[in-house]
């Protein structure tokens, strides 16, 4: 995790770096207190922003997209397309592979267009998602149009058996019986 997000009187998205072979992806480069909150951890990991190949936007709220322009050489992914330079290639996110071990799934809930980035690692599956703001939920997402759709998407992600969930605005957590549905 490049930046552990938060949402209280201020807001920052959880920003994640995912590497797999030639893939160097950043998930949700949104609002942070300063761009250095994204760039400094990248530098410590030996990654220049120009080397980032892909950026995934879980949804289009500014707190998850604001710093996308830091990665001008990347392909950008959302729920409906891949954007590269001035090319817009329509494609559904569902099942789209960024690499052999990293793929996207459609998980409406927080917004109707939400997607989750799933990565298979040596330690198990990791899901980067805004289905949860933090380990505590919230149980009722104040932005969700349909609580049952949110619940179904949460069940879908948990059904994959992730060993770690990176929520939209908090520390990564190990899902368990207390994870809000």
Which terms summarize this structure?
five-stranded mixed β-sheet, alpha+beta, 181 residues, Metallo-beta-lactamase, Chain A
Summarize the helix and strand pattern as letters.
Answer: EEEEHEHEEEEEEEHE
The CATH fourth-level homologous superfamily: Ribonuclease Z/Hydroxyacylglutathione hydrolase-like
What name does the CATH topology carry? Answer: Metallo-beta-lactamase, Chain A
**Which structural category do the helix and sheet elements fall into?**
alpha+beta
Write down the Rg.
15 Å
Classify the oligomer: single chain
Provide the domain count. Answer: 1
Strand proportion? 25-35%
CATH class: Alpha Beta
Q: How does CATH name the architecture?
A: 4-Layer Sandwich
| Helical percentage | 10-25%
State the helix count. 3
What is the overall silhouette?
globular
| Strand arrangement in the largest pleated sheet | 3-4-5-6-7-8
The biggest beta sheet, please?
6 strands, mixed
Mean pLDDT, rounded to whole units? 97
Could you give a short description of this structure?
Helices cover 14% and strands 28% of the residues. The protein has 181 residues and is an alpha+beta fold. Strand 3 (16-20) and strand 4 form a beta hairpin.
């Amino acid at each position: 995790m490049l930046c552990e997000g938060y949402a209280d009187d201020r807001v920052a998205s959880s920003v994640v770096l995912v590497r797999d072979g030639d893939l160097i992806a950043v998930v949700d480069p949104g609002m942070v207190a300063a761009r250095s909150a994204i760039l400094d951890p990248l530098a410590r990991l030996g990654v220049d922003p120009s080397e980032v190949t892909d950026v995934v936007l879980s949804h289009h709220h500014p707190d998850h997209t604001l710093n996308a322009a830091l990665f001008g050489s990347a392909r950008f992914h959302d729920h409906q397309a891949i954007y590269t330079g001035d090319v817009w290639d329509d494609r559904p996110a569902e099942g789209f592979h960024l690499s052999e071990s990293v793929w996207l799934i459609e998980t409406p809930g927080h917004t109707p267009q939400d997607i989750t980035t799933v990565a298979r690692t040596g330690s198990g599956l990791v899901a980067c998602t805004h289905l949860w703001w933090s380990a505590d939920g919230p149980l009722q997402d104040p932005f969700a149009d349909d609580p049952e759709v949110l619940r179904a998407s949460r069940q879908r992600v948990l059904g994959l058996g992730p060993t770690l969930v990176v929520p939209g605005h908090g520390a990564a957590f190990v899902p368990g019986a207390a994870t809000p549905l």
